[in-house]
Amino acid sequence: MSRYWSDVVHRLTPYVPGEQPRIEGLVKLNTNECPYGPSEAVLAAMAAQTGEALRLYPDPQSSALREAIAAHHGLKPAQVFVGNGSDEVLAHAFLALLKHEAPLLHPDISYSFYPVYAKLYGIQTRELPLAEDFGIRVDDYLAIAREGGAGGIIFPNPNAPTGMVLPRAEIRRLLEGVPDAPVVIDEAYVDFGGESAAALIDHYPQLLVTRTLSKSRALAGLRVGYALGDPALIEALIRVKDSFNSYPLDRVAVAGAVASMQDEAWFAATCARIVATRERLGAALADRGFQVLPSAANFVFARHPGHAGAALAAALREHKVLVRQFPRPTRIADFLRISVGTEAQTDVLLAALDRVLAAA
Ligand code: PMP
């Protein structure tokens, strides 16, 4: 292959998602899906769109959903952008907002999709190591930005796969010090105990907050995500979307997502249930000798001092329990990222772990 084509192929290195195997009886704790089904109100609203209504194109602006999301956050619809999952929203944000003359800063341990988008769109990146305790060091970002070295900043909060939270006061400090580069806070997991930056939107025009309905609203299969930001940033995202002539969401997805944003009772109860199981899981892992990072997400990140991460993940798989292990960076290779399942799935996981640890 010529150098040109090998460069093209390199630029298009895809993201490697968590496995979605079809193995019967598998306890699937590897992709942070919600272990409970969506609310009845969501299912009914979607069913109502699957008959005669399908004849009609959806609203290209998804206005009903933007209004429902705005109402939920106490913002205006002009501050809301919607897309097919937050991955698509992030893709548009990379294309529309990030600068090209300086690198995009992100933690060395964070969502592995960011470098994929950056490569695709020809955006340079600079990875900043997390602190010893796996926290994000705002001062590192501020120092680089002061020298004009930040074309943008992105990280998940809570971070993935650590689950750890950066307090809102620290995000505010970051925004104060980086006034003229986009700062994207990916809040895919914020509903499980993080501190949202959504309340800062009105004060910082460089801030974009992304969210998903995949985790806390049990709609990973529907593909709905959104961004909150200054109307100018949102308009830029809409222009990118329109340049692809793409409808952001279909009728069924809009109906389900609107119903979900309005079903506060289901949402609150489901988040509380998952948080309670997460606390039980974290304590049970600690009892078994694991180091467990403090999680505000719907997963825990934990390592056992006596076991290599890859071997432990493989042994659990033998017991039909699937968890995620990241070989790189090597600093986290011995950690397992375990999604919070139902109480019954947690029982199965812990029983499997006991057998694996006893056998070793
Ligand atoms: N951000 C982070 C940090 C994630 O872990 C995920 C889920 N893999 C996403 C965004 C994307 O979620 P979705 O596209 O399902 O909205």
From TrEMBL:
Q: Which GO terms describe its biological process?
A: L-histidine biosynthetic process
Q: What does it catalyze?
A: L-histidinol phosphate + 2-oxoglutarate = 3-(imidazol-4-yl)-2-oxopropyl phosphate + L-glutamate
**UniProt xrefs under InterPro entries:** Aminotrans_II_pyridoxalP_BS, Aminotransferase_I/II_large, HisP_aminotrans, HistidinolP_aminotransfase, PyrdxlP-dep_Trfase, PyrdxlP-dep_Trfase_major, PyrdxlP-dep_Trfase_small
Give the record's keywords alphabetically: Amino-acid biosynthesis, Aminotransferase, Histidine biosynthesis, Pyridoxal phosphate, Transferase
- Modified positions (N6-(pyridoxal phosphate)lysine) in chain numbering: K215
E.C. no: 2.6.1.9
Look up the record and name the pathway of this protein.
Amino-acid biosynthesis; L-histidine biosynthesis; L-histidine from 5-phospho-alpha-D-ribose 1-diphosphate: step 7/9
Fetch the PROSITE patterns from UniProt.
AA_TRANSFER_CLASS_2 (PS00599)
* Subunit field text: Homodimer.
Which family, according to UniProt? Belongs to the class-II pyridoxal-phosphate-dependent aminotransferase family. Histidinol-phosphate aminotransferase subfamily.
Protein name per Swiss-Prot or TrEMBL: Histidinol-phosphate aminotransferase
Species, as recorded = Aquariibacter albus
User: What are the leading ranks of the lineage?
Assistant: Bacteria, Pseudomonadati, Pseudomonadota, Betaproteobacteria, Burkholderiales
